[in-house]
Structure formats: C-alpha cells, structure tokens
Specification:
The protein has about 350 residues and is of the alpha/beta class. It is about 45% helix and about 5% strand. The chain has two domains: about 70-145; about 150-335, 3-Layer(aba) Sandwich (Phosphatidylinositol Transfer Protein Sec14p). Helix 5 packs across helix 6 (about 125-140) and helix 9 packs across helix 15.
Length: about 350
C-alpha cells in the first residue's frame, strides 16, 4: 500500500442541490427531532424511531463520492505531495513503460491510466513504481485461484446486506470514506473470504478514480455487535488482506477509524499489528464506544449515516447503480494486467 503521512488540505465545492421543502411537523415531532439532535451532538445512540425524523437534504460544502474531476487545488496538492507535474508525468510514463516492456516476465499493456496508478503511489519514481507493480502481481498470482473466481451472486449478496461500501460524500479533505459494519455480517451465511473478495472489488473499482489516487481514502470500521466467531472466521483472511493492502494495493489509505470496540478486539489486533508498518499502525485511530465526538473531529457528522449521529443514510447507491460495470472492470484488470511469462506462451517449434 502506498504511504504518505501528510494530510491533504483540499477545499470542497458546495453541493448545488437545493434543500427539499418539507411539510411542517407537529409540536410532538419537533420535540422528538430535538432529542435526536441532542443525542447526535453527544455522540450517543439515537432511537430508530427518532432517526426517521432526521433531515435528508444533501450536506453543503462536501464533494460527492462519485466526483472524479481533478480540480486545480488537487493538481497543486499532487505537485506538492506526489511530485506530479506535467514534466514528471511525461518522464515517469516513458521510463515506466520502458521497464514494463523490457521485462521478459511481464505481458501487460502499460496504458496510461494503469501506469499512473502505480506512479502516483511512488511519487513518480518510475523504478520504485515498477518494483511495486511486480511485487503486487507476484502476490496476485499466488492467490489467483481466489481472486479470479466468477460468482456475481456473492458480490450482490454482500452488497445487499450493507456490510460495507463508500459513504455518499467525501470528507473535508476530499477523501473517499469506506464504511464497514460488523453487525451486518453473519459469518455462518457469508464466509469470510466472500466478504473480503467483495471488499477488494470495491477498493479496486474506487482506485481507478484519479481523485482517489491523489487524495486517498479513509476507513470507518464499526465493530458494533462483533462476535468472537466472526474474529475467528476472519483471522486467516485478516493476515491475507493486511499483506495484500501493503504489497499489492497502490492506493493511499490515510486513516482507519475503529469504533464500537468490543473487549476481545485485541485478539484480531494482535494478529494484524505485527504485519503493519509503523507508519500504517499510526493511522489506526481507536475511538471510545460511548463517545463518537472524537470521530467527528476527523469526519463531520454532517456526512455520516444516522447510526453514527449523522443525517445521510448509507445506501450503497454507487454499487446499486454500477455493479455490472464494477465487475466488468475488475475482471478486465485481472485478465489484461498480470504476470505472464512470454517464453511460456511462445508456440513451441518442432525439432
């Protein structure tokens, strides 16, 4: 996984959607809404009945998750933090392609969109980007039997349960927010690998957005109702996922916010922690279960779902609208960009 400890300062555009005009509520409902707002301000749980009274108008001043246009401010950030300018981009692409096409064990098309993902992850050092590419492909090859399986029903089922996805709006720095919920996962119904497979597909899809390549992601991991059986079921794959994200994922994961932490979370953390670099360990932020105010210091509750005290429901709309395209792109990426010996694929000559 690409690493960059600096926090971006990307100002966001205000939402253009106009607030919806609603019918006035009765005084009784106003009191309930007031209670819900007070509870949200304190970071405490809000009764489901009162959640229905929360406003649904889009928050102002935040970019939507679907935003894929690199703004002038983002270009400035890329130049300062990623060493990306027109000159370094042209030079980096040229050097990167020479390394790719000159390697006898690689059989890929170093198209610009793909090459830029790896170059940005290593701040346009073509040699480091190339080495990272090869390391990633070697790792993918080791698990191709798992990563390349085609079972769209698994992905659709995981998606329908709302186990994870991206929130509708980006944080104040323009970063996409991935949201994962333990309470939506039944380990007896959804095997751990099915959950991870679907998650990798989501991250891979988001990783092709140039805004995400430049600004990065943050993660909210909600461990509410996490069961020991889930930890045990996920233990093997937590190690796989941790190594994969660091060795084969050219993306900037800026922060991991862990909330609603159960007492036995240390079991999983002890498995994962030794595999993480020191820089990545520092990006894990553990919040007290009884107080989400510390989470709001990083991510405004204006863009969080109601269960976290916010006003914007988590609907996974991006997946609902684009699931077929997401799957198509995922398999295209695996099929057209992988480690493959040219020598092995040459037609044998008769002696």
């Amino acid at each position: 996984m690409a690493e960059d400890g600096s926090r971006s300062k990307i100002s966001t555009e205000k939402a253009t959607s106009k607030p919806t005009t609603g019918v006035k509520k009765k005084d009784k409902n106003k009191k309930s809404s007031s209670k819900a707002s007070e509870a949200a301000a304190n970071g405490s749980a809000i009764p489901s009945k009162e959640l229905q009274l929360q406003p649904t108008q889009p928050p102002k001043g935040f970019l939507p998750f679907s935003h894929n246009v690199v703004t002038p401010e983002m270009e400035k950030y890329a130049a300062e933090k990623l060493n990306e300018t027109e000159e370094t981009r042209t030079k980096g692409l040229e050097e990167f392609r020479k390394l790719v096409y000159g390697d006898p064990d690689l059989h890929i098309e170093a198209e610009e969109q793909l090459a830029l993902i790896w170059l940005r992850s290593k701040k346009f050092d073509a040699k480091k980007a190339f080495d990272f590419l090869k390391l990633g492909f070697h790792y993918v090859e080791s698990y191709r039997y798992l990563l390349e399986r085609r079972d769209p029903e698994i992905v659709r089922k995981v998606h329908s349960l709302g186990m994870f996805g991206f929130l509708p709006y980006r944080d104040p720095d323009g970063r996409a927010i991935m949201y994962a919920r333990a309470d939506k996962w039944d380990a007896s119904e959804i095997p751990a690998w099915d959950a991870i497979f679907s998650g990798l597909m989501a991250v891979q899809d988001a990783g092709h957005n140039p805004v995400n390549q430049i600004i990065g992601f943050v993660v909210i991991l909600d461990l509410k109702d996490l069961k020991i059986q889930q930890v045990l079921a996920m233990s093997r794959w937590m190690i796989f996922g941790t190594v994969l994200l660091q060795r084969a994922c050219p993306c900037f994961l800026k922060a991991f916010h862990v909330i609603n932490i159960p007492p036995f979370y240390k079991i999983g953390w002890k498995l994962v922690k030794p595999l993480l670099s020191e820089k990545i360990r520092k990006r894990f932020i553990f919040h007290k279960s009884s107080d989400l105010s510390t989470l709001y210091e990083h991510i405004p509750k204006d863009i969080l779902p109601p269960e976290l005290g916010g006003n914007v429901p988590f609907t996974n709309e991006h997946w609902s609208k684009n699931i077929d395209k997401i799957e198509e792109n995922y398999y295209y990426y695996l099929s057209n960009n992988f480690m493959k010996s040219r020598r092995k694929n040459k037609t044998p000559t008769s002696s």
